[in-house]
Design a protein that fits this description.
single chain, alpha+beta, 10 helices
Length: 334
């Protein structure tokens, strides 16, 4: 499948497997609104947006670095892993208490290793510390501390190829959820605009009555006339927005149009940008050309929908490195 998607990037759409296109369309319809199957030629209307998104997501998946082997030994030997965790115990806790990881090894007795995404938040904070300039130690130097926290694990696979393949379909699923969220947001905005229109009409009537009152001074009437004109414009704009939104969602064709809009522009909702930072063993950001003990830490900055950006890599973890956690309450673990 990865090979076929790469063919698409070169413009050879015909090499895409029809089964993959059909699967993507089924995911989209099931996750947004199954009634879309009632729309005439819905598969034809979704076909090009789906092809575009499949190719785009495949390209994104190739940008995620890894897989990196992760365990206690790697924490001590690999600067990449050392920079991402506070201690080797944190690694064991994260993986050994992960319900998906434990379930994977339970369901796959022949697999000695699991491949999965590792996601986390990256924070940078200004601190003061010592630095070396040749043989001279300088104190109270402004520095930037880099910290990775809030680690969580994604879907599990038996190989890197299988994992990247699975991530492509997760991308399609995420776009479908985004389309559903957009439709729900439009529906909510319809209710908001209706309430706003009602309030504007009430205010308009009150101002109009005040403007026509015989006991109102001329200067006040002039001010009211200006307010009425501004209110007329706001009411007109509200009516226009309400008409646009209502028309968009009036039919299933309108819903399908919103779905197609998301899949025609996947880069608006899914982004993966290769990222790197040079840090020393203390987690202090350094200049790669000047640092004597620093290392280049690579991740990918990932954004899904309207959610906050996070950092991600692909990792592998061995069954032999699992520790027993009797009595573990899985509900309390990511």
């Amino acid at each position: 499948m990865l090979r076929r998607f790469l063919d698409k990037l070169l413009g050879r759409y015909e090499r895409l497997d029809e089964k993959d296109i059909e699967r993507a369309i089924d995911i989209i319809v099931n996750e947004t609104d199954p009634r879309l199957r009632m729309v005439r030629a819905y598969k034809r209307k979704l076909r090009k947006p789906v092809i575009r998104s499949l190719a785009y997501i495949n390209n994104l998946v190739t940008r995620i670095p890894g897989p990196f082997e992760i365990n206690r030994r790697a924490f001590g030997a690999d600067p990449q892993i050392n920079a991402l965790f506070g201690s080797a115990d944190d690694i064991e806790t994260l993986f050994s208490r992960s319900k998906p990881v434990r379930q994977f090894f339970k369901d796959s007795p022949g697999s000695d290793r699991v491949y999965l995404p590792l996601a986390m938040r990256r924070m940078e904070k200004k601190v003061f510390g010592a630095s070396f300039s040749g043989d001279i130690i300088r104190k109270d130097v402004a520095q930037t501390a880099v910290n990775f926290s809030d680690h969580w694990l994604g879907i599990c696979a038996a190989s890197e190829t299988e994992l990247r393949h699975m991530l492509i379909w997760r991308g399609i699923y995420n776009l479908a959820i985004t389309a559903l969220e957009n439709i729900s947001s439009l529906q909510a905005s319809t209710d908001t605009l209706r309430k706003q229109r009602t309030l504007l009409k009430i205010k308009h009537r009150n101002l109009q009555a005040r403007h026509l009152g015989l006991d109102v001074p001329e200067e006040t009437q002039a001010d009211n006339a200006v307010d009425l004109q501004a209110l007329d414009l706001r009411l007109e704009e509200t009516e226009r927005k309400l008409a646009d939104v209502s028309t968009t969602l009036a039919t299933l064709d309108g819903h399908l149009g919103q779905v197609c809009n998301v899949f025609n522009h996947p880069s608006r909702y899914l982004r993966v940008k290769p990222d790197a930072v040079h840090v020393n063993r203390m987690g202090i950001k350094s200049d790669s050309t000047a640092s004597r003990d620093g290392a280049r830490i690579v991740t990918a900055a990932i954004t899904i929908g309207n959610n906050p950006q996070f950092e991600g890599i692909l990792v592998s973890f061995q069954r032999a490195d699992m520790t027993e956690t009797p009595g573990l309450n899985f509900k309390a673990v990511r």
